[in-house]
Design goal:
With 377 residues, the chain is mostly helical. The protein is elongated and about 80 Å long. The protein has 15 helices and three strands. Helix 9 packs across helix 10 (257-270) and helix 11 runs antiparallel to helix 12 (302-315). It folds into two domains: 2-127, no CATH class; 145-375, no CATH class.
């Protein structure tokens, strides 16, 4: 009886293992068909999964995603200690090789399962078709210095005019709760112009452990297990409206950082909320100036680099300069806390998921912004 049970258990293990491998292979093959991913997953299955996860996680007003990650880390540490203990016991025994083979098989199957779960909960969104057709845009793959300069001048003009209608008192009184409420309202409003930008049960929550971001290097993140968008509340308030829009774009299924930035850009551009628009303009100008100065640096012209930086400083309103300085200094003071390996790992993660520029993929929103502004001329 015991022998029959062992045989049955073994056969069941083989069947389950084959099932996981077949699903993983199907997901891998499906990822090569972006339109299929967009239609059936990003705007289909993922919407139901995300809504279901948020329905559960919204039972708590607090973000629970950080606790989930903490629990995962604790479990991994315990499992590693257990394995090292077993390895020590088997090290000088004849059955060491079979033990290692079993370990490799278990690890391989674990990776297959993680791949399947990750792809179903979130990862397939990286393979979806570009939203360019939905917005009727033709997005180029590169930009010229002239295009960046024109965009930079436009952004500076908009920064100055928007800052004039944003009183200092409004910035001082603005809270993260207000930002979250306004962001959700703006996403509900944008649906009248772009019906495909629909999001049921949006979830923005404040991070319980914001200081983790100083070490790992984030302002906010989308949690694929809980469906939450978790935002640091200790960062300068003017960074939060654009960041919140970016994270809600992730909840919609826009996994690409450039595309999530673009959705946030569109929402802010169409908004009548000056603080949201100003937050977007600050971030976009930072991307634009950084890219423009980078192109000049590549051709080795320090004189042109210095001339551009000086010109931009002269064109910007004093209050805009002060706002940018405050944000820059806030992150500069914490830069030494960043764990170098975390940035490298995230960079590699983005590259694995079709974002060739890695962390610099965020700047690709400029290509989208140029196309959007050209369409609206």
């Amino acid at each position: 009886m015991k022998k029959d049970l062992l045989i049955l258990q073994k056969r069941l293990g083989i069947i389950l293992g084959a099932f996981w491998l077949i699903v993983a292979l199907a997901l891998l093959i499906g990822s090569f068909f972006p339109d299929w991913v967009s239609h059936y997953y990003s705007f289909g299955l993922f919407q139901s999964i995300g809504k279901g996860l948020r329905t559960v996680s919204m039972v708590s007003a607090s973000a629970i995603g950080e606790y989930v990650y903490l629990l995962i880390v604790i479990i991994l540490i315990i499992k590693l200690i257990q394995y090292l203990y077993k390895f020590k016991n088997e090290f000088n025994k004849p059955n060491l090789l079979p033990f290692l083979i079993r370990t490799v098989k278990k690890l391989g199957m674990l990776l297959v399962k993680l791949y399947v779960v990750f792809m179903l909960l979130w990862g397939l969104n990286y393979q979806k078709a570009s939203p360019a057709s939905s917005f009727q845009l033709k997005v180029d793959t590169t930009y010229t210095e002239a295009q960046l300069d024109q965009l930079s001048l436009t952004l500076m003009e908009e920064l100055n005019s928007t800052r004039l209608i944003v009183p200092d008192s409004a910035i001082v009184k603005c809270t993260i709760e207000q930002v979250f409420a306004h962001t959700i309202t703006e996403f509900e409003t944008i649906q009248s112009s772009y019906p495909f930008l629909q999001l049921e049960k949006p979830s923005l929550k404040q991070a319980k452990f914001p200081s983790w971001g100083d070490y790992i290097g984030y302002m906010a993140f989308y949690h694929p297990i809980t469906g939450e968008a978790i935002i640091r509340g200790d960062v300068p308030i003017l960074t939060l409206p654009f960041t919140s829009c970016h994270e809600l774009a992730h909840q919609m299924g826009y996994a690409s950082e450039a595309e999530a930035n673009f959705i946030a850009f569109v929402v802010a551009s169409e908004s009548k909320d000056p603080i949201l628009k100003y937050s977007m303009l600050l971030q976009l100008f930072t991307y634009c100036q950084s890219e423009q100065l980078g192109l000049i640096a590549k051709r080795g012209s320090f004189q042109d680099w210095e001339k551009l930086a000086s010109r931009n400083k002269q064109l910007l309103n004093f209050k805009v300069i002060q706002d940018r300085k405050y944000i820059r200094e806030f992150f500069a003071k914490r830069q030494h806390l960043l764990i170098p390996a975390s940035a490298s790992m995230y960079n590699q993660f983005l590259q694995w998921n079709k974002q060739a520029k890695g962390i610099n993929s965020y700047n690709d929103v400029l290509l989208w912004a140029i196309a959007y502004k050209n369409r609206n001329k």
